[in-house]
Specification:
The complex is a heterodimer.
Chain A lengths: L7 H11 L1 H39 L3 E6 L10 H10 L4 E9 L8 E7 L2 H6 L5 E2 L4 H5 L4 E5 H7 L6 E4 L2 E9 L1 H8 L6 E6 L19 E5 L6 H11 L5 E4 L1 H44 L1 H9 L4 H34 L11 H28 L2 H4 L5
Parallel strand pairs in A: 3-8, 5-7
Antiparallel strand pairs in A: 1-9, 1-10, 2-3, 2-9, 4-7, 5-8, 6-7
Helix pairs in contact in A: 1-11, 2-9, 2-11, 2-12, 9-12, 11-12
Chain B lengths: L3 E10 L6 E11 L4 E5 L6 H8 L7 E6 L2 E2 L5 H11 E4 L11 H7 L8 H14 L15 H13 L5 E5 L7 H16 L3 E5 L11 E6 L2 E5 L1
Parallel strand pairs in B: 3-8, 3-9, 6-7, 7-8
Antiparallel strand pairs in B: 1-2, 1-4, 4-5, 9-10
Helix pairs in contact in B: 3-4, 3-5, 5-6
The chains are: A alpha+beta, B alpha/beta.
Chain lengths: 390, 224
Amino acid sequence: MRLTDPWLGQDLRDSLTGRPGRTALTVFAVGIGILSLAILMAILGGLREQTARIIDRFGADVLMIHDVGDDRNADLDGAFVRQLEGLMPGAVVCGVRSQPGHDARGFGRLRIISAGPGLGRIRGWIPREGRLLDAADRREGQYHCVINESLAGRAGVQPGQMIPLASSLLQVVGIIGDDEAASMTGSADGAENMVWVADTVVLSGDRSSPRPDRFHAVLVRHPPGWTPPAAASRIRSAFPDTRITITTPDSLVARTRTLRNTVRIVYGSVAMLCLLLGGTTLMSLMTANVQERVPEIGLRMAIGARVRDIRNLFLLEGAVLTLAAGLAGILGALLIVAIAGNRLDVPLRIDAATLIIPLTAAALLGLVFAWFPARTAAAITPADSLRVDG
Amino acid sequence: MSVIRLDDVGKAYPTAAGPVRVLKHVRLAIEPGEFCAITGPSGCGKTTLLNLAALLDVPTEGAITCGGRPVTGLDHDELAALRGGMIGMIFQKFCLLPHRTTLENIVFGARYTGMPRADAESRARELAERLGLSGVAAQPARLLSGGEMQRTAIARALINEPKMLVADEPTGNLDAASAAVVMDLLRACSREGLSVLLVTHNQHLLHYASTHYECREGALHRCA
């Protein structure tokens, strides 16, 4: 049987439209399975993309040290930062305080980052306008700040202009991109704005500021020739009694990999179950079709159909049904991603794999689950199928 | 040369109690243009005989030749090709595809013979004209009368220009007038050189036939 066979179109049209209820039910059942698979692929794609973004923002040669337990900020102080600088000559070390800011002016959600000029170097920020904070800003405790683009737009400020913050007036010295700021706010969609001030600046009226010279975290860009795990190991061995957690790019990847695997197993099981149910629906409805079409099968054999013509006809019907279901499922998934994608906390990404894998699965599903009914149809003998009293 | 020839053919079906012989020592040769009728009571084996003559089944004993070619030992695909080219079948229940039009049902007869579709459509139109079906050519088969359905089935059987028509109770579901039209058609085909093998209960149809056999208890007896 060739796909270019001019007779084939009518055969398939008759088969599929002859029992519209069954055809629709099969497409629906298989389509749900394919939709589940497409959504799974979109979630995995989204998680993969998010992981890449997190790693990219975090920095491939960066470590983040933060304290553990209830004794917050106990060990992360200026002395700790200086010891790290001594431990790894050539490293850039920067203590960071992070706290929510007050949005009294309608600037949107704010996060105040208090850190020295090393932050810009560790993050590799390049100012869009103005400059980053420098050593003089820190040394002299200047009320200078660097803000992100969205905040600059909302506040209508340029470098050199003042911005009010926590009862203090800060002079904006530079503006960085929203995506760069997101590496400190954790807000991937730019919903949270960032104000970076020197860690030596104490904002008046801000009671949430931690004690001076205490940090929430310490960022380290290790010197060339080191690796993040080697640097982490060196720090742990140098401070055996200090209760700290060290996050490296590898540990971040491991964490997201665990999440991806969990999604793959849990949601993948659901998707597989849906596909299996779709496949068994296809098989049972096609088997019923074969039973009803025994006289037609006999007629086809009487006019010269070979066994493989009959088998291939039913296999092709199964493949066409599941491909139609595959397209419907993928369209459904695209629709869900378009309508609900931004409202869900789960990252979703549609790429080639999201389309190709479900379609391939649909074609395979059609062939596998149509095999039994096709074989049953091909096994019917012409004499039996045309049997009448005699 | 006989169109179909059965030499000492027997057929047995396996059952739990051992093989049951439905046909035994059947000798039958149908010549070109012969109109052969087979009658017999239900269960006598005439459908089995028809299936063997139409190459729908294979014998357990004896030999069958079709157009001088031995059929014994041919595989399913070779039998299917021979069946499609040599034999046209007509059924009591017509076996039309109800959603297709009259013309499409006639064309369907050439589905597996390798005839180009355009040629099949052209020949189907000729047959529809000849069998008085032109007026209903575009109608779905399910809307046809019984007589029209059977004429459509005959046209379908004729589209491949077979050597023999095998008709299984072709008038069983028709009124007397429609039955007469169908039998006249079959006789006309026979007079044009086509062999016809008719299986029927209806003794009134025997005058159409040139030879008559009676099937009794699996054996075939020629009648005068």
